[in-house]
# Entry
Amino acid sequence: MTVPELAAHFGVHPRQIYAWKKALINAAPRVFAGPRGRTDEVSERKLAELYEQVGRLMVERDFC
# Structure
């Protein structure tokens, strides 16, 4: 369908369709990235916590 046809079908102004298209194009990488980006952040944070814990346990073991 063309933009005017879509606008008539959904009862919105054609400029609104163009605005939605522009917003989708700008946000598409984040929208379609899925949970991978968030999972990577969680994994990195969890890994840092584990390294910290290993360091504390090594110091504790060496101290005793």
Summary: The mean pLDDT is 85.
